[in-house]
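Pasting as-is:
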Amino acid sequence: MQGDPEANLAHFALQKLKIRAGVLLGLCSANEPMGYQERVFTYGSILVRVEQEKNQASKIKSKGGR
């Protein structure tokens, strides 16, 4: 993944460990609702993951499903 290393770690924490970016960065507690910036980051993280999964599926399909 390219870009900001801290954002990459926050993306990993959200996708794999189920830890919200705001909680990881110490911006809020787990019980607080998401703010606008955290929501935008979360949506972006989801879009990155969807794109990665599409690319992976495309690679598998081009190799004949192996």
